[in-house]
Amino acid sequence: MHPLDHVIWHALTTRQEVFAEVCGEARRFQRDVTSLTAFEEPSAAGYDALARLAGPRGTVALFLHEPYQARPGWSVVGGAPLPEMVCENGAVANPNLDLDILELAPRDSAEMVELAALTKPGPFGSRTHELGTYLGIRRDGKLVAMAGERLKVPGYTEISAVCTHPDHLGKGYAAALMSELMARVRERGEIPFLHVRQDNTRAITIYERLGFRTRVVVHYVVLRKEQE
To answer: Could you name the CATH architecture of 7-83+219-225?
Structure first.
């Protein structure tokens, strides 16, 4: 099995076990960290454990190997195919931009949540920043771009929440932030990877220029447990 197979489950049973809420065969990140959830396998027992973990009308976000098939007691809230991209070659692009890249802190959490809500890079909560290093760029005191580390499994760290305010697109901020994060991941002897919506061709082009290549496509789905 590749280290990135079943990546949410592996993160919650290895490097990020401290963030896990556990119920039988299901695990989820603490709710104010992120909504990402996993089970050992997509079996009846797995979904039963997931239901107990979610609670009535609770929502969970899963990465599946195959498109979600409807199951009794669950409704689909959203989702999309996500290419999982890995930068195996060790190259880190240097955009050569004269930017003041800042390391974000807990005091920046509200602005980070606001930027994520505007740009929708994926699930982002008030404590997501606790998962790893988050970097940002400010203009006139306002946070206009950020990127950080999310899922971590042995040997790999995910770059996530790559987002730029719509008024500041096209300035190379995302590439600059990612390059700095990639360098830090490499310094630890790890390999960077990421997930991106399949229809986000603009972002995929940037990631490919930075050396990322698609390994697999996972199926992201957000489910709500129906009231019984």
So the answer is: 3-Layer(aba) Sandwich (3.40)
